[in-house]
């Protein structure tokens, strides 16, 4: 789970400092990997190499909104829904975060690496399903 804090002015002109939470579970990462030809990293490399800005922007919008959620008070779940994502996408917080990630490669890489702190070795697991997935931490 990755906490991001931003200070911004809301639509009433009131300055606010808020912390929002972002997380992708191993299941969500696996779904993204298996649902993308060649995996997410390879797909991103292709669009970066092609300098395909519209696709890069679309990816980051979807990635941010997929990772955003609201943690329960007791910490037992991290709620995500289309409605939660839709409301978040309408905030100045989202606007600031999106613009930061879209214009700063190092911030974008940092965000992705923090949201996905553990990567499942999907290929190894799919070749040998009786073996538990290998988890490597990235920091």
Explained architecture:
This protein is an alpha+beta fold and 139 residues long. The chain has one domain. Helix content is 51%, strand content 20%. The protein contains 7 helices and 6 strands; from the N terminus they run ββαααββαααβαβ. The chain has a 4-stranded antiparallel β-sheet. Strands 5-6 form a two-stranded antiparallel ribbon. A hairpin with a 5-residue loop joins strand 1 and strand 2 (15-22). It is globular. The two termini are 13 Å apart. 11% of the residues are buried.
Helix content: 40-55%
Low-confidence stretches: 130-139
Oligomer: single chain
Strand content: 15-25%
Summarize model confidence as the mean pLDDT.
83
Number of domains: 1
Computed CA radius of gyration, to the nearest angstrom: 16 Å
How many DSSP-defined strands? 6
């Amino acid at each position: 789970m990755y906490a991001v804090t931003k200070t911004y002015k809301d639509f009433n002109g009131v300055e606010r400092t808020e912390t929002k939470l972002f997380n992708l579970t191993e299941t969500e990462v696996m779904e993204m990997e298996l649902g993308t030809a060649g995996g997410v990293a390879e797909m991103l490399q292709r669009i970066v190499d092609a300098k395909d800005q519209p696709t890069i922007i679309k990816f980051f919008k979807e990635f941010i909104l997929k990772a955003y959620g609201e943690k329960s008070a007791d910490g037992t779940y991290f709620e995500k829904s289309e409605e939660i994502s839709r409301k978040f996408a309408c905030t100045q917080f989202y606007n600031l975060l999106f613009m930061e990630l879209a214009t700063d490669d190092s911030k974008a890489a940092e965000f992705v690496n923090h949201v996905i702190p553990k990567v499942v070795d999907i290929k190894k697991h799919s070749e040998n399903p009786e073996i538990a997935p290998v988890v490597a931490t990235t920091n």
